[in-house]
Write a structure and sequence with these properties.
The complex is a heterodimer.
Chain A lengths: L2 E3 L4 E5 L4 E3 L2 E3 L5 E8 L6 E7 L6 E3 L2 E6 L4 E6 L8 E9 L6 E2 L3 E6 L1
Chain B lengths: L4 E3 L2 E4 L5 E6 L6 E7 L6 E7 L2 E5 L6 E5 L5 E5 L8 E8 L11 E2 L3 E5 L1
Parallel strand pairs in B: 2-11
Antiparallel strand pairs in B: 1-3, 3-8, 4-5, 4-9, 5-6, 7-8, 9-10, 9-11
Classes of the chains: A mainly beta, B mainly beta.
Chain lengths: 114, 116
C-alpha cells in the first residue's frame, strides 16, 4: 500500500530563514512518481515539482530545492531565504507510474513571519 | 487560457440532501479526477475519468458517483449527504489518464461544501 507521511504539521520561520519540509513515502512499486504541491489560503493546489523513481538527482528551481533519497524513502523540500508569500500548506504526494490517483500526505502548514 | 473551473464555489446543504458539483477541464485535457479534502487533511482520491470512462475509484461509498460528458467536463454527485461530507472538493485535469511526463494534474479552485 502506498503511504505518504509529513510529520511536520506546522512550521513557523522568520523571513529570510531557510526551511526544510520533510516527506517520507512508502510504496511496493519500483516505479513511481513523487510530487510537491502548494496550497495557499485560496485553496487551489499549485504544482511545484514531479520526480520519478529512477531519477534521484536533486533539483533546484530558484529558491526551491528538492532532495530525493530512495535509500531513506524521502523527498524533502527546502525553501531558501523564505518570504512571506511562501506561507501556505505544502503537500507531498505519491503516484504509481501508470496509476490513476495521487496519495497525498497530511500537509505541512508553513508560516513565514515578516 | 482558462484553467480548471469548478462550480459552484460554495454550497450549503442539509443532511440527507443530494448535491451535484461541476468541473470543466483545461481545454484539450481529456482526464478529470475528483478529490475530497477534509479540513486539516490532504486530498483523498474519489474518481478519475478518461475519455468518458471511469479509470479509477477511491475508497468512497456508493453515495458518491460521477460522470464525464463528451466535452470532457464532469459532474460529481453525492446522495444522502452526511455531516462528514463537509469538505473542499477538488477537480483536477490532465492530458491523459496516466502520470507520465506531460501528464501533470492541474487542480481547480475547488467547491467548498458545508453539510448542516
Amino acid at each position: 500500500a502506498q503511504k505518504v507521511t509529513q510529520a511536520q504539521t506546522e512550521i513557523s520561520v522568520v523571513e529570510k530563514e531557510d526551511v526544510t519540509l520533510d516527506c517520507v513515502y512508502e510504496t511496493r512499486d519500483t516505479t513511481y512518481y513523487l510530487f510537491w504541491y502548494k496550497q495557499p489560503p485560496s485553496g487551489e493546489l499549485v504544482f511545484l515539482i514531479r520526480r520519478n523513481s529512477f531519477d534521484e538527482q536533486n533539483e533546484i528551481s530558484g529558491r526551491y530545492s528538492w532532495n530525493f533519497q530512495k535509500s531513506t524513502s524521502s523527498f524533502n523540500f527546502t525553501i531558501t531565504a523564505s518570504q512571506v508569500v511562501d506561507s501556505a500548506v505544502y503537500f507531498c504526494a505519491l503516484s504509481e507510474r501508470l496509476g490513476n490517483q495521487f496519495y497525498f500526505g497530511t500537509g505541512t502548514s508553513l508560516t513565514v513571519i515578516p | 487560457d482558462a484553467g480548471v473551473t469548478q462550480s459552484p464555489t460554495h454550497l450549503i446543504k442539509t443532511r440527507g440532501q443530494h448535491v451535484t458539483l461541476r468541473c470543466s477541464p483545461i481545454s484539450g485535457h481529456k482526464s478529470v479526477s475528483w478529490y475530497q479534502q477534509v479540513l486539516g487533511q490532504g486530498p483523498q482520491f474519489i474518481f478519475q475519468y478518461y475519455e468518458k470512462e471511469e479509470r479509477g475509484r477511491g475508497n468512497f461509498p456508493d453515495r458518491f458517483s460521477a460522470r464525464q460528458f463528451p466535452n470532457y467536463s464532469s459532474e460529481l454527485n453525492v446522495n444522502a449527504l452526511l455531516l462528514g461530507d463537509s469538505a473542499l472538493y477538488l477537480c483536477a485535469s490532465s492530458l491523459g489518464g496516466g502520470t507520465g511526463a506531460g501528464n501533470e494534474q492541474f487542480f481547480g479552485p475547488g467547491t467548498r461544501l458545508t453539510v448542516l
